[in-house]
UniProtKB/TrEMBL annotation:
Domain VOC: 8-140
Protein name: VOC domain-containing protein
Pfam assignment, any one: Glyoxalase
Length: 144
């Protein structure tokens, strides 16, 4: 038996050197809604929500830590190939309009890697956000 009871995912946090750019990406590409965010003083934070209950917290990167910005990040324009993501670090979403969603990514110039599962039905697309964080979007039904 697990030590915790009633567990559910509350949010994922991502650091960024440009939280406004990253927020715009998640709003335009995946439909996140911007929430009122408390002020933290010395650094900027943006909270986003994907209904019904998933939140993404974008936090201004602390340059003093000298940690990499994201698992595959580099300077803009040198982000790793999305073909490396199926077994790598990524956050996954399901959409009901897979084909038009992928076309939108391509229309926006976002490099993608598409894959079909052995069942022949499930399609997946892998890509990066502007900070190099891996994303996967699949055609499977959303969990109930």
């Amino acid at each position: 038996m697990a030590a915790a009871e009633g567990v559910c995912l509350n949010h994922i946090a991502r650091e960024s050197s440009d939280v406004n750019r990253l927020a715009k990406f998640y709003q335009e590409i995946l439909g996140f809604e911007r929430l009122e965010t408390p002020k933290f003083g010395e650094f900027e934070v943006i909270w986003l929500k994907l209904p019904p209950a998933f939140s993404l917290h974008l936090i201004q990167r602390d340059l003093a830590t000298k940690l990499p910005e994201g698992p595959f990040s580099a300077t803009p324009g040198t982000i790793a190939d999305p073909k490396n993501l199926p077994r790598g670090h990524h956050v996954s979403f399901a959409v009901s309009n897979y084909e038009s969603f992928v076309q939108t990514l391509k229309d926006k110039g976002i490099e993608v890697f598409e894959k079909r599962q052995p069942d022949g039905k499930t399609k997946q697309v892998f890509f990066f956000d502007p900070d190099g964080n891996g994303l996967e979007v699949g055609s499977w039904p959303a969990p109930q």
